[in-house]
Amino acid sequence: MPHKRAKRSVREQQRSQKGSDLAPSQLQLSLSQEAIPKSLSRVLNAAKVREEWRKRKLEDGETEEKNGTKKKQKLNEKTHSKTKTKSIMPGESLQHYNKRVETDMRPLVKSAVQSSKLAIRHAQRQELASKSKRDAVEHPMPSSEPRTAQHPGRPTEFQTLSTSTPRRLNDIAQSPPEFNHLPRGVESSSKVSKTKVEQRDGVISLAQKEMMKQEREKAIARYRELRAYGKNDHIEEEAQD
């Protein structure tokens, strides 16, 4: 079989027939005609590759300016993209078409919203500036000059009392304080008690008063009976002793 390796004896026989240290045959390529790797060929032929790349770009629609900068012209691509967004593609559903249109129109909508916000802010700033100018004209700021006193004879500061005896924190009180005059809104205890009694009298009816009197008399009679019963028991105990 050709894909299998021959025996060692056969290989040694072939090697002895061919010999060793022979010159390269015509079938074998020389070093000058040997293929070069692509990475090395790109380095050696960089200028040629660059020229080919420029020609290809010029054919696609790019132009070179005098100063060496490149200006890309993609009018065909723009028109193609516009037609794509406007019209629905074959085999495309409405949902995917709506999403594609939204993604294409999103930057335009965003820029429009930003421009409108900037315009609103500019208008608000102008309104604030005009209002501040009007307020300054209608209500001018007061001057920084000191005011003249309306009543020159009156004292401007509160009076302070100076006592010879110093105030101490841990002084011992010899007697409770006496109040000769009650504070505002406070009435004496006698007046308060009278008003309370009057209020009670006004609240309790006559029938309730009679019932209370009867209950009071009953309680007194029972108390007297208990006292008499206790005295009799005490006398009997003393007699027995």
Automatic annotation (TrEMBL):
Here the segments flagged for biased composition (Polar residues) are 157-167
Q: Where is the composition biased (Basic and acidic residues)?
A: 53-80, 124-138
Q: Where is this region: Disordered?
A: 1-28, 53-198
Name of the featured protein: Uncharacterized protein
Can you name the source organism? Lentinula detonsa
The opening ranks of the lineage are: Eukaryota, Fungi, Dikarya, Basidiomycota, Agaricomycotina
